[in-house]
């Protein structure tokens, strides 16, 4: 069978890999391995392999793209990447196929007399600049806007912010990361005074217990979940799934605990009660490094236009906080949440045990929440009370959904209130940005304008007349969708959409610009663990497609900002990145030099003295710590983290006699977000060709509904008919249904509610009341 010791070792290694692959495949789907995938690539050794971060989710897996005759023909996991270590999910391994759909947009289209007419890129850019000038002249600078996403590269988002905030002078810059990551941002800001996780993926290799807070990690972040399962095989770690529905994550976990929607707030407080009641508080850590605060409560849900909220935090002491928690004993919370007191104590025991390292992980279940900032705060409370933070294996960690939601939205600052290094409301931050941008400081408006939901409401009302949408699909993703789709069609609105394929969003455009995708251009993404990753242009884009960055640069020059947008086309990405780096100089947020990013699979900021910072706020690892203590939460003026008193409150809309079910929405492993790319990949589209509604099996039986039967869902905002899914992938609780949102033919967001967290302004896609009927 083998002819040498080397062959024998190779054989044993391959058998071990095969066993691991088989075990992982049995636990959950969606994972492929480098060895498995490369075996399917003909003549793989003859391809020109180039590194890049994956195009899809915020995990930021490193991939190697195989180039042959000017075309990307293969992809495999990059074994040098510390993120995925050669492993990829099913989307990553098919990512290059997303560039070659038959209906790629290749030429600019302008709507004339209700029909799209091909035009040149120069003419299309001239028209966009002309419309912007006209709109600003007639209605003022705040009548123009841009809406991007965490799919923007860092250069894309940077020039968008510079053009609109620095040159035009409007803060009408938003990104659809507001719909998925804003509560994580405000959670970090309110607890630590500075954004982004203090830990990294290496925490997975050190933690003993993983608590997944409303996070179907097996499907949403399968590569990271595979790393957790690998640790369970090696070290016997515990995985606890805490969710509102049974998923593939539940099935692969050691324990699944189901809670009623919105009551994660109560359970988190009950865990804090248990920690204090059992004497598990790390008193030294809390006394040295924490303060206690409370804010406003019962502040509404943003359902009305022009809703405004400003929190009024006030200091409290530990005794006041302890008194507050008396309403959250496990026995009392059991009645609210449906989680047994025994299970609450079980979860608390891991956090409270000084010998257990605990990693809390969450995604949209916590962030898409009308009290999203609060639940982020409460999970931080648990880690702060026990001192289980900023050390290897002790990590509260918010996962992201888009490849650069952290890098381009949170770090670059493409939200209405943000700047690359701070906020528009801060005079020093405005002056710093103005100097780098070479604009008068008066250009940067000190007042934020519209967050995403309110931006589309302003478009509806006519306060915004021009909107440029890049690399996102809001006519699928916006909640209460019909209102905002109708808004785009009103007279006097001009919509520009930059994309790679036709979507429901290009359908409402006045001008459609074809964009270069991923490795058809040069750029950088920033992933969930503060890792900035560079990719070079590997192939030419089709037709007249150009990058979103260069589209913006060309329009900026036409608007008269040649001085600020001096970049040369051949070197513009390097010039933009080096300019952007100036915003983050210093030990708290220094970015790695471009040559470092080119030479390796990314680097984590703060990048200081030639080294990535893996754990922030810990003086052992973080060079920004300067208080002489073991920990320094330098985002806050006093150097301390905040433990927040945040109560449980009801959701804005709950089931009643007319609408007796909870509606929950989300993703599936085969498709990424609205599916505009993954539905062009035949194997993924065939595996998951359309949307569906998951029903509880017992209720489905009573209602006479079987898999494939047509079901009508109705909310106060609309109705939709979908095929039923019973006892297939996920299993909702009684009076719950789940619908994925990738299918543009079944627009579930016509039914969802546009309520949002008053602090983060992030909508809640997980909870509204719905009626279910068999058709």
Automatic annotation (TrEMBL):
Gene from which the chain derives: napA
Catalytic reaction annotation: 2 Fe(II)-[cytochrome] + nitrate + 2 H(+) = 2 Fe(III)-[cytochrome] + nitrite + H2O
Name under which the protein is recorded: Nitrate reductase
GO molecular-function term, one example from the UniProt record: nitrate reductase (cytochrome) activity
Alphabetized UniProt keyword annotations: 4Fe-4S, Electron transport, Iron, Iron-sulfur, Metal-binding, Molybdenum, Nitrate assimilation, Oxidoreductase, Periplasm, Signal, Transport
UniProt record similarity statement: Belongs to the prokaryotic molybdopterin-containing oxidoreductase family. NasA/NapA/NarB subfamily.
Subunit architecture: Component of the nitrate reductase NapAB complex composed of NapA and NapB.
The organism of origin for this protein: Aestuariibaculum suncheonense
Function: Catalytic subunit of the periplasmic nitrate reductase complex NapAB. Receives electrons from NapB and catalyzes the reduction of nitrate to nitrite.
Binding site for [4Fe-4S] cluster: 54, 57, 61, 89
Domain (4Fe-4S Mo/W bis-MGD-type) ranges: 47-103
Binding-site residues, substrate: 741
